[in-house]
Each structure stands twice: as structure tokens, then as C-alpha cells.
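Annex B, item 7. Sequence and C-alpha cells for protein A, then protein B.
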Amino acid sequence: MVLVKAVRRVSLLGIVLVISGCAHAGLGGIVMEEEFPVVHPKDVVVTISNYGKEIIDGLALGRRFDNPNVSPSPCGSEYSARQVPGRNIDHDTWWVGYSPYSEGIITYVEVPSEEVINKALTRLKAALEGAGWRTVEFGAGSATSQAVLRIAAPEKGYGAVLQGITSVPGSPRIGVNISSPCLRHPEAR
């Protein structure tokens, strides 16, 4: 009976870990290994860049992203990180020297006024939902809060967070963070 309850707890915990995206759990000596898809970082950057184009088009501001930055990040448990051979001698923005990893684009777009932020995010929400994205959170800005749009892309695990930024006087903008899920590098050792 105790063993059955323990197995159920481990199974339930395993389900919660898989659903939540948590990568690694130590359960009294039991280690659950990550099950991340294997995707080359170059392909991931193409995907998130395409999502970025959908976002900038959906905002319909007639502007481009300012200072877009491709940013890889470690993902999962530090105990399971694996090294990727080689060095980034060409300074490729997609290059990742570890696995598992995620890629993201962090950027912003300037807007002419604070009033434009809510209208642009509402327009974007409608455009992306029409293209198969799913809204996770949407809140219009007010005097005490900033507008925010959290939206899941059609491809599992990809998504974006957009937030109105009005704290910089005379320079209202929409912050944009587009990210991939946790992935494994095909060349990891």
C-alpha cells in the first residue's frame, strides 16, 4: 500500500513536471531526465525571428524593432547541462555552447505616445489570435499599471510577452520578449 502511494506520488509529480516544463527532480535518489526536443539553435532563431515579424506586422505601427538582441539561455537543471563542442569564432548570434537551452529575442518598439500602446496591443492580440496564437494574459494599461500581452505561439512552447513601458519620460515604448521552449542541441555531448 505504501509502495503504491509512493508510485502514485512519483507518477503525479512526473506529470506535474512534464506539464509545467520543470526539467529535473530528485526524489530520494530517483532522477527524472529531461525530455526536450532536439533542435539546432539556427533553426530556433529562424522560428523566433519569423514570430517577431508577425508581431511587428500585427502592431501595425509602421516601425521596426529597436536593438533586437538574440539571447540564448541555459534551460533545465544545471546538473544535466551538456557541453557543445567548438567555439563561436564567427560570433554567430544563434550560437549556444550548452544544452539544454532556449533562445529568445529581447527588443522594443518606440511608440509616438502612451495612448498608442493599448491600441497597438489590442490590434496585435486580434491579429495573432487570427493566426492561431492563444492569449494567456491581456491587460490594458491604466494610471497604475502597464499594458501587458502574454501570448502563446502556434508551435508548442514558443511565445511572447509584450509590455507597455512608460517609465522613461518622453520615450514610450512596447517591450518585446519572444522565446522558445527548452530544447536540446543536436551536437551536445
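Protein B:
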Amino acid sequence: MNESRRRTIRTAFQTAVSAAGVLLVVIPVVMQVAQDHLPAKAFAALAAVAAAITAGATIVTRLMALPVVIGFIDTYAPWLSAHERDADDSTSD
């Protein structure tokens, strides 16, 4: 398995674990309320939405790791950069 694929799987796993922490608290409350108002098929749709959110977060994370995107962020959005800027790097004269 190549390194890129391993990183993608690791990112998906991290996102799923992070989402699971929130969902374990929120889902029981939502299901208690929704049980009287939603048909049984809606629960499958909610699971699909959770999977789509995990996939979307994985895609965004992979895109953010591309060298082109990192260069763009370093140039045009330095506050989002993973690299800290030195005082000598400032462009003000």
C-alpha cells in the first residue's frame, strides 16, 4: 500500500472517530425526538449523511495536503499556513 493511500485511510479514520464522539452524544437525543416524526427509512438516510460528511472531510484534507494548495495558502492566506512566518519574511518595506 503506497503512502498516499495510507494517509487517505488514516484521515478518513480520524474524521470518523472525531465525528463519532459528537454523534454519540447528539444521536440519542435526535433519535428520541425524531422517532415519532420520521419513517424508518429516514434513519438509513441519516447514516448516509454521516458517511458523506466523513468522505467530504477526507477529500478536503487530501486537497489541503497538495503542494499546489499549500503554496497557495502560504502565499495568499498565511494565517492558515502550517508554517510560521519569521519577522524577516514580512513584505512590508
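Comment on protein B: The longest helix spans residues 3-34.
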